[in-house]
Amino acid sequence: MKKIVQQYYINLFLTDRLFIALAFCVLLFILKFFLNWLGEIPEMATGVVFALLILDIVILYRNKAGIEAHRLTSKRLSNGDENPIQIEIKNRYGFSVNLRVIDEVPFQFQLRDKDFRLNIRPGDIKSIHYNLRPTKRGEYDFGFIRIYTGSSIGLVNRRYNFDGSRILPVYPSFINLGLYELMAASNHLTEFGIKKIRKVGQSSEFDQIKNYVGGDDIRTINWKATARKGGLMVNTYTDERSQNVYCIIDKSRVMRMPFEGLSLLDYAINASVALSKVAMLKQDKAGLITLSETIGTVVPAERKAAQLGHIMQVLHKEKTRYLESNMESLYSTIRSVIKQRSLIVFFTNFESLSALQRQMPYLKRIAKYHLLLVVFFENTELKSLSSEPAKDVEGIYHKTIAEKFIYEKKLMALELNKHGILSILTPPQKLTINVINRYLALKAQQRI
């Protein structure tokens, strides 16, 4: 019995309306000392307030489960994307109720604004929608849905608690994977910022023989099939398949820099997942290697259905390290693991030309056996700083230094191209688009 009373007491909250009513009663008692004609009015007013208070409590607690609510989310959250969250609330009271709904979102978001107010008629169901954008991978612990319920009397609120302590994992960005897949399959990549690539030459992998239609290349006419069928027949070819595409992700300290809440490592991870998805859609094999002062995870290139899920599971746990990457170990691993010529997309970052030159001998050795694409990042903060007009001498100094670093990044790309190494210098926000675009260009040019 004591436990039940305590439970009711814990979830009972007095409202501002009650305190205002009590303050009014106190004022009446004070005025009674000066105005005798008030008589018993203060006592009667106080009695009415307490009677309404008891009535309000009885109304709210008469129904053991007057409110039902639950949180609707996906089983996992997508890092760097807007994830929809929905709360459904049903009123099982026989009257309209005023609700204050507080959703306790994980502490990583540092949000205190998920506070909603609504009115629900008896038997109705209402939904609350909002979005959350995580910027770090890991486990996110949702707290309770706190619902404070009040009747039309409004002297007290009854609190309900739902869906306490629900943990959701945050995985590399997967929400837009279906969009990338659709765009790549339908050849409408320009709609997503990916430009069309003109095909050079003819793929050597035969696909089928079909009837000639206007626009087909007359050089592909199959004269033997034409003679047999009595109508023009042409050979069709498809892109080379079953090529290896490896994403190598640098986890060293150069990838800790944040942009718009996401670290460079998270941008690289999201782009690797998207590229792996598109590569398998194009019938290529996707693999993964992570690197810091030692070799992290090695996922051999495969095209099986579970490969993308395996890659995401591995990348879900990766974190940046504080030491420099071991390029010698990377070269040895590539030579021992990757036996055939492959496309290697190396996600890293260089903040100075000397840093690139230290790694250049190993990059040239890798490029000797594989098609190497080095992806590194523009510093968008420096770019915005250089575009702002200088207001004083200090501003001129900062702008000059920013332009110097921007120019040095371009020199790095030229240095890589001089040694026959492909490169992408990209803003972090456009990384995925630019990497997929380059992959499709290399496929169209039959370089892999």
Automatic annotation (TrEMBL):
Q: Name one Pfam family in it.
A: DUF58
Q: Which residues form the signal peptide?
A: none
Membrane spanning residue stretches: 12-35, 41-61
Q: Could you tell me which InterPro entries the record lists for this protein?
A: DUF58
* Domain DUF58 residue range list: 209-373
Report keywords, A-Z: Membrane, Transmembrane, Transmembrane helix
* The protein's name: DUF58 domain-containing protein
Which species is the source of this protein?
Pedobacter rhodius
